[in-house]
Predict the 3D structure of the following.
Amino acid sequence: MPRKALFLAIGLLAFTGCASLSQNEVETTRPASDEPSVDKVTPVASEPPPTESFRPEELYLLLVGEIAAQRGQYDVTLGNYVEAAKQTRDPGVIRRALLIAESLNSESALRTLTQTWIDVAPDSQAAHRASAIQSLRDGRLEDTLRHLEEIVRLGGDADFDSLAAMGSRLPMEQQQELLRLFEELQARYPDNPEIRYSHALLQHITGQPQKALDTLEPLLDQERDFQPALVLYGELLHETGRTDKALRHLQTSSRRYPENQQLGILYARMLVSENEFRAAQDEFSRLVERFPNNHGLRLSWALVALENDELELARTQLRQLAEQGQHSNQALYYLGQIAEQEGDTDRAITLYEQVTGGSHYFTALSRAAQLRADTGDSMSAVEHLRAIRQESPEDAASLWLIEVNLLQEEGLYDLALESANQALAEHPGNQSLLYARAMIHERLGSIDQAEADLRAMIEKQPEDPTALNALGYILTVNTDRLEEARQYIEEALAMDPDSPAILDSMGWVLYRQGDAEGALDYLRRAYEIYPDPEIAAHYGEVLWSLGQESQARVVWRRALDDDPDHELLLETLDRLGVDDL
């Protein structure tokens, strides 16, 4: 709400009487941003109005505050309300003063007012909740828990789980303090299920899944219907390596509590993570039937159906989302994928070009451009990208990159280099464009220029494993500076030890240095992660050099099945005289 509208909504309290504000009041606290939902809007019990009217000087403070608000002098309004709150000690005035302090983000006023409210109404749940929020903002965790504990004593819901949930955003020292405070709290309230659950949640968030499981299990023994704990239990079983038990638990619990979306969604997603796509599709179907207005579930159902090659089911759900304007960019992108998979190029291009934003926007543009180029009209695709670039200058660098990569993919290296040079003139130092130009330079045999671009990337971002690996690989393939190349690749591998591209480079530089045995392990790992033709060419050659010719043939044959025209693979087979695959 705009500030002026906010204050006008308060009304001329001096004339209407502040005492009436305490009747059926609703507490309004700071909108959730970095804090958890401890500070959600919460109904507050009515408090009896004061029996005496305000003194003239108190009414004057409020009246001047309202007039100042209408004139935009909000600091005067706040100052008057804080003073009126301290003088009147009226809960209604305190609440209104808190509302103004929230609007102006005045931490000092909030501290004063929350303490005043506690002094005036020590048995008010709302007062303790407001004080807990302020203590949390100030980093006074012990005071936060003390106020929440008072809410429990007063018979209210203290939202301990919301406090636990923010543990991941705390520094390590405060995480440890919060864990200690929860341990003490649980010792004082051993039978309070919310406290035990929140303690387990905090342990989970701070990376202690086994401890969290140990904390949670006694709760589930006593409170079998505590549904948040059932959700957390499934997550913890999975994280501690008991996936089969987790799946059984979630299946049983989601059937027992079919209205609990969290249980069903966690079960479905865990099935996906375990590559149980058929079962996951059935689960998402069940969830969509029960929760038809949850559009995210419908999208998940469509994507799992797509994974299962059930194109018609996926298309039906994606079309419904697009027609309803829900997740429409994602829906259009995947509808484009379906059309492309079915060979309907024109339809695929149309769908891809209808994607107007979101995480798939540039991928959709790239696919549309590539499909246009595949029809034999590369320059038409380029012109289309340039037209979009004129309309969307804020996306120019990304659109240049799509153009450069497209031209390179089409083998138009001179044009690709021309575009890359122009792009970098407009966007100097852009890492992605520098990398793309380095690859073009290598392809054109300009190794020194490729090296210069990669070194420029590394100078700007010394810990960029992609640039380090590319430099090492280019030196490996095109020069005799193998020891230097190996150093770059080793640096990259230390940063990204599971990258198949870097593992492949490491294996290849070792092979070129004469260490075929050492190379084999790296290439095997790379091939197991990502068996693309280039890695297969290297892996097969090292196997061949070690006398493992039959295994090399298997690797090469599989690669040829995937890409019979792969240039490096064919060059390798020709160089080694292998023609009987």
